[in-house]
Amino acid sequence: MFLVYSYTHKCNDSLFLATRVMSELTDQQLVFRISVFHDQDAFAQLHSRYYPKIYKFIAYKIARSEDAEDISSQIFLKTWEYLTSSRENKIRNFRAFIYKAARNNVAGFYRMQGNTPKILDIDDTEYEIDLPDVREDIFKKQLTIQDTEQLIECTQKLHDSYREIIALRFFEELTIEEIAEVIGKKPGNVRVLIHRGLQALRNLMNTTI
To answer: Which CATH code, of 1.10.10.10, 2.60.120.200, 3.40.50.2300, 3.40.640.10, is assigned to 124-205?
Structure first.
């Protein structure tokens, strides 16, 4: 009886240690283990780390929770297949990669329904400028004191492109460079969209941001 307990206890300790070690690895280290060793524990860690965020991001764009769940699951399944199909399939920034996949899958979902959201376009040569982050800093402070329900309600009324950029920057906390990779724009264009989105949000909230 003692031997059985001792063996079980050691197995549980090993499992806990493995989980703890995985949780301490960076995204890039986990991606490497998945790509080279087809490590399911490494993928489970990435899934645990990002699935709730990706689901929330998709649910923010798609009304039915069942659809958001299906799309989220498909994204991670395709990601596993992509990483394990060839060692040549590289991912430099997993967070940007998975959000870009989410964005593309949402667009595909709407295309299948014959409803392609209109995307605001910015001419790269005209708007490749570096805007100050003062308005962003003020908005971040506003997030901590503003009525959350009112903030979300106003954000939902924004044009889809502004709503997406605000969500990626302030709710998902992606960097400018990561957002640029996700939406396929230059960093300067991303700053312009953020600037315009915050201006539009300020007008909706009728308050100073």
So the answer is: 1.10.10.10
